[in-house]
Structure formats: C-alpha cells, structure tokens
Write a structure and sequence with these properties.
With about 575 residues, the protein is an alpha+beta fold. About 25% of the residues lie in helices and about 25% in strands. The strands form four sheets. Strands 1, 2, 3, 4, 5, 6 and 7 form a seven-stranded mixed sheet that branches. α4 (about 210-220) packs across α5 (about 245-255), α4 runs parallel beside α8 (about 320-330) and α7 (about 295-315) packs across α10 (about 385-405). The chain is globular, with a radius of gyration of 42 Å.
C-alpha cells in the first residue's frame, strides 16, 4: 500500500526527533517502501505508532535489528564485522609462551683449568651415575675452557668426570720438565682426568697429573678393579663412584705427595718465566700487615713441581715426563700409598711390586704383614728410612729444577730469594715448613701405611667383616683388594667395597660382605687365615672361602655348608689355587 503524504511527513518528524538510531549496514537494511525509497530507521525509544500494523511492523524490525546488533557487537570482539561479510580474523593463534626468568639457571659451568698450555686437546664431561656425556669441546690453544652442565646433573653433590684426550697427532702441551727445565712443547698422547662434585653452582676444576692420581684412586675405592694389564685401557664404569670416594682419594694424595687437589694454581705455566715469577709470600711487609704470609697456591705448586721434577730427572730420556709421571704415579697410588707397590693380584701373587716405581728405580716400601703393628705410630717408624730418603730426593730435585729455571738464558724473570729460601727450608718428607716440624698422621709421605690383613695376637676369631673405608680396623677386606689369576683360568676379584667374585670359564659366583654372622675371619694358625663370605640365600647358603698366608691369597673355594661359620664346606663347585 502506498504511503500518504501525512504518513511520510509523520515519519520525517519522527526521524528528526530520534536520538538513538542503528547505523546503515548494507546487509541489515530494512525492507524498501513501494516507491523505492528506504523507510526511515525505527526509533529505539519514545516512539508511538498511529496504527497497529505500522507498530507491529516496526517492533518486528526492531527485534531483528537489536539481535543483529548484539551479534555483530559480539563478533567485533571476537572476529570483527567486515563490510563485505567476510570476517577479518583478529585472534592470535601463536601458542602462548612462558616468559623466561633470567634469574633461573638451566645449567652450571665447569671451568676446566690446566696449569700447562694445551693445543688441540679435547675435553669432555661425563655424568658418573649414568655415563651420559654432558658436553665436549676442544681447546685450540690455552689453559682452560668452560663446559655447561644441565642443572639436572648438578644436584646433591653429583659427580662429573672430566677427561682431556688427544684429538690427533697435532695435539700437544707445554711440558715444563723438558729442555733442562726450560720447558718445551710435547705430544699430548695420553688422557688426563679429574672428578668434580657439583652442588648447583659454577665450579673450577684443576686437571693435571695429581687429579689423575685422585681419579684412579677414587675408582679403586669405589670397587673398580685394576690390574697392570688393564692400565691405560678404555675408561671403566663410573657407576659405583660416590662423593666419599673422592674425598678419601684427595686425602690419600695429600698424605703421600703433599699436594692438595682442591687448591687452584697461582698462575699458568706456559714458559719458564711463569715458573720464575712464583712468589711464596702473598704480601710484602707493611704497617697494616707486618708479617709475610705464605701463599698456599704457590706453596702447593712448588711441591707439585718438585715431585714431577724428581721423576723427570730419574727418567731423563722420556719425551713426555709430565704425562708419564701422571700415569706411573696413579698406578702406584691405586693401593693408597706412595710405596712402589700397586694393588694386589694381577699376574702376581700377593702385593705386586712396580718394576719402575715413581719413588725411584729399585726402591719400595716394606710389606706390612704384621697386624700387631696396625697403627700410624708403628707404620711411621717402619717406613722412616723410605720416607726420609724420598723427601731428601724430592728436595734435591726441586732445588735443581728451580735453579735451572733461574739460569735460563732466555729468562726475563727470576725466583726471588724468599721463594728459593722457602724451597731450601721445606721438609719434603712430611710436607711441612722447616725440618723441625713433627710428622703428622695426615702427612705421612712415602711408605706403606696400609694396615696388614689379619687379627692381632690373642684374637682367634671375629665375625662381621668390615668393607667400609674406615680406618683403625684389623680385618678390613679392602686390604686384599685386587685381581688374582692362575694358569688354569681361575680368577678371584676382591673389590674395595667388599664384593668377592670367583670364576672359571662359564662358572661364576659372587658374594658381598654384608656383615651377617656368617661373614667371618678365622685364624687357622699363626698368620694363616680363613675368610668366609656368604650369599644372601640363608636357606641353602653358598660360601666363598679365601685362604691367606701373611696377607697373600693362596686359594679360593666356592660351595655350600649347613654350618653358620664353616671351616670346611660340605660341597664344592669350584676350587682355585693361586
């Protein structure tokens, strides 16, 4: 129906009074009037229709418009309302990220520091517990490098093994002992190791011949068995290493060599001038500090260089004395003492002597086989001659070496008189300043201070064998630690931690000292002893029996017995004589 002029005027007046209108949208226009002119937009408030039909029409349109308006408003918040009907996406589809907190560490750094210059040498860090290689890098030329260890491997004193190894034939290092004490480059053709304990902090680890000694001694303490035939073979398992093994190995080093593995270097040694620049006093006399103070880092280096110098002078033809000292000293220290002997067993019966000991050729400590002398006082007395002879030899070698450094024709720096005087007055027998210093049980020097295996006089029997690293016990099974073999293929392994394994061909039996009543040591007669180590199966227990004479293993038997502490087994499966 056509609109009348009055109706059109009325609509015009209504539009003029409107304060709230819906904006024009191409897809939301109301129906056109019959004359082709779009009707005005309906009022949102205060509008009264003159007829029912018109009112109905306007209310219907109003409901549609409001619904569309709300939908579009919501759409604008989510996707936008485009003019063409194609919505523009405004949602960020990028996955949310957590802001990185710069204060939270994801790794900790191990700074590996060598006292001598390294050229083209590889370094790696291995988690002892899992064998996981945590990082590798190469030192092109220098003394130190940094390996980042993931934080998961730095908790609770976790042990990390650092290894320096050659890359190829061009790998080399500065050896201070070559060229008559002036030093020279030498091929880096052996590996060096260091063990560090991490507690979620950055750490600096020294790696040198003395860290190698600690590494090999700690492995022995953890139950890893070495024989002379395995020396230099691929690396063993580190799974049994524990922080206490590292601590005790460090103590063994300090006691025998007078060198602290935990003390960092006072400076790098990349030329003879670096050695000549060592100054024993860290401060000069002044009003605020009227006394000279010994620099412990320099003192540590003077002792360390003196020990290596003795080896170099006794093995003058060697082309890598610094590295070879590390290998031979570590071999000697596997039994815990600087005594010219290695751990028991190998192809030899009992304590194995080293053909070319680190002490000097032809010298070794007395063998301890008297359990009545198992205390530090007696052992110091028994080893007096060796300890003092070695101390004198180290002092002479140190004086000769440092004088050579001072006399170098290319030297631009010289050791001062205070430092030379300190070397002259140092007691290299027990590693204290001045010869009047008393011997300390923690600085025993060269000698065999391992307690003899057996029971003191008057004690015939003792149960509950001990396999711990403690001291002061007369029957510790660790004193028999070693690998024993015979010509028929029998092998007896006695681990430091108390594992005993007897095998031949396909037969193999293993027991562990567990301090049960059946684990026992019995004196048969004199210095003849019977060691019983039983299995955990108490219903039909197996025993490994080891017989010793004067601390030497002579036989081992595996079998069964109904007795709690048998002397003779009821049945035997394997018998081996050594």
């Amino acid at each position: 129906m056509l609109s009348t002029p009055r109706q059109r005027n009325s609509r015009k007046n209504i539009v003029n009074r409107t304060t709230n209108t819906i904006g024009q949208h191409p897809n939301l226009q109301p129906p056109s009037s019959t004359d082709g002119t779009p009707p005005s937009m309906p009022l949102l408030k205060n509008t009264i229709s003159r007829n029912t039909a018109e009112t109905t029409h306007r209310h219907a349109y109003l409901r549609i418009a409001l619904a569309v308006s709300l939908a579009c408003g919501t759409g604008l918040a989510l996707t936008g309302c485009g003019g063409s009907g194609d919505a523009t996406t405004r949602i960020d589809t990028t996955p949310p990220t957590t802001p990185v907190d710069p204060t939270v560490r994801t790794s900790y750094n191990i700074t590996v520091r060598s006292p001598v210059k390294l050229i083209n040498v590889k370094a790696s860090a291995t988690d002892a517990a899992t064998g996981t290689v945590l990082g590798t890098t190469t030192i092109a030329s220098g003394n130190d490098l940094v390996i980042a260890v993931p934080v998961a491997y730095t908790k609770n004193g976790n042990l990390i093994v650092i290894t320096l190894s050659p890359v190829d034939g061009t790998s080399s290092y500065f050896d201070p002992m070559l060229n008559n004490g002036q030093g020279n480059l030498a091929p880096f053709n052996q590996s060096l190791h260091s063990i560090v304990s991490l507690f979620q902090s950055d750490i600096t680890s020294r790696i040198d011949p003395f860290s190698e000694i600690v590494y090999q001694r700690a492995l022995t303490r953890s139950g890893v068995l070495f024989s002379e035939q395995t020396f230099g073979m691929p690396q063993p398992s580190f799974k049994t290493l524990a922080p206490e093994h590292l601590t005790l190995a460090n103590n063994d080093l300090s006691s025998s060599f007078g060198v602290s593995n935990g003390t960092q270097f006072s400076g790098f040694i990349n030329s003879s001038n670096d050695i000549a620049a060592l100054r024993i006093y860290s401060t000069a006399n002044n009003t605020a500090n009227p006394f000279n103070v010994v620099n412990p880092q320099v003192s540590n280096e003077l002792v360390a260089l003196g020990q290596i110098a003795l080896y170099a002078q006794n093995n003058a033809s060697e082309t890598t004395p610094y590295l070879n000292f590390a290998l031979r000293a570590a071999l000697d220290m596997r039994d815990g003492d600087l005594d010219g002997m290695t751990i028991n067993g190998g192809e030899k019966i009992g304590t194995a002597l080293i053909a070319n000991p680190i002490l000097y050729s032809g010298v070794s400590a007395p063998v301890n086989n008297d359990p009545n002398r198992n205390n530090v006082t007696n052992l110091l007395t028994d080893n007096t001659a060796l300890r003092e002879a070695h101390g004198t030899a180290v002092k002479q070698a140190a004086i000769q070496f440092f004088n050579s450094v001072n006399a170098a024709p290319t030297s631009t720096t010289h050791l001062d008189t205070d430092t030379l005087g300190y070397i002259q007055d140092f007691n290299y027998a027990n590693f204290t300043y001045k010869a009047t210093s008393t011997v300390s049980s923690t600085r025993t020097g060269a000698g065999n201070f391992t307690y003899a295996f057996g029971l003191p006089t008057g004690t015939d029997f003792k149960n509950l064998l001990d396999a711990n690293d403690g001291s002061g016990r007369s029957n510790d099974i660790m004193q028999l630690n070693g690998v024993y073999k015979n010509s028929s293929g029998c092998q007896l392994n006695i681990g430091y931690e108390g594992t005993v394994q007897l095998s031949q061909g396909s037969l193999s039996f293993t027991s562990v000292v567990n301090r049960k009543s059946s684990d026992s040591l019995t004196r048969l007669s004199g210095d003849n002893y019977l060691l019983n180590v039983t299995s955990a199966d108490q219903t039909a227990p197996r025993f490994i029996q080891v017989r010793t004479v004067a601390g030497k293993v002579i036989s081992a038997i595996e079998g069964r017995s109904t007795q709690a502490v048998p002397i003779n087994l009821d049945t035997t499966d394997l018998t081996c004589n050594f």
